[in-house]
């Protein structure tokens, strides 16, 4: 049975330790992958979510997602101001972080200044994507184990 708000709150004491442990492990890896700067990861995630929104991924396997080669990516326009508004990070800070991501080769701009995540970023962050999958599996397994003992 899938996780729901009611299920999580009812079994909170069983699920929370798995969640907090997995979340800490994921954040540590994300921080390492982004050179100690989680704001870089947040900005990449926001831009990436504009390139491949959830409605596009619903029928994709993980392998299809990784090997998509941008065939199915919409790359909806997003700029620094939109990222600042979405993330709550100051516009000037977003500008500096985007500049760093461009220097790393993780982000590019089109002729209109709209941002895109590069294949290099997707490849570099694959261990973080894998870690997020393990985090989701651990939560699901903990939830299922809790249900069996109830």
Features:
150 residues; mainly alpha; Arc Repressor Mutant, subunit A; two-stranded antiparallel sheet; 2 strands; 4% strand
Task: Note down, in words, how this protein is organized.
The protein is mainly α. It has one domain (5-149): Orthogonal Bundle (Arc Repressor Mutant, subunit A), CATH 1.10.10. 69% of the residues lie in helices and 4% in strands. The protein is built from 9 helices and 2 strands; from the N terminus they run αααααααββαα. A two-stranded antiparallel ribbon has the order 1-2. Strand 1 (107-109) and strand 2 (115-117) form a beta hairpin. Helix 2 packs antiparallel against helix 9 and helix 6 crosses helix 7. The two termini are 13 Å apart. The mean pLDDT is 86.
Mean pLDDT figure? 86
Instruction: Provide the helix percentage.
Output: 55-70%
Strand content: under 5%
What count of structural domains? 1
Tell me the strand order in the biggest sheet: 1-2
Distance between the termini: 13 Å
CATH topology heading: Arc Repressor Mutant, subunit A
Oligomerization status of the protein chains? single chain
């Amino acid at each position: 049975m899938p996780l729901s708000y009611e299920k999580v709150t009812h079994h909170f004491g069983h699920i929370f330790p798995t969640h907090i442990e997995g979340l800490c492990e994921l954040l540590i890896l994300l921080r390492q992958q982004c050179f100690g700067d989680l704001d870089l990861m947040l900005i990449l995630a926001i831009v990436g979510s504009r390139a491949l929104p959830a409605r596009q991924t619903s029928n994709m396997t993980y392998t299809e997602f990784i090997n998509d080669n941008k065939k199915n990516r919409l790359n909806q326009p997003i700029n620094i101001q939109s990222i600042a508004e979405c993330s709550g990070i100051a516009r000037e800070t977003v500008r500096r972080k985007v500049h760093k991501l461009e220097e790393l080769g993780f982000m590019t701009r089109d002729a209109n200044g709209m941002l895109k995540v590069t294949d290099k970023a997707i490849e570099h962050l694959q261990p973080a994507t894998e870690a997020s999958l393990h985090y989701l599996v651990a939560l699901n397994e903990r939830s299922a184990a809790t249900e069996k003992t109830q």
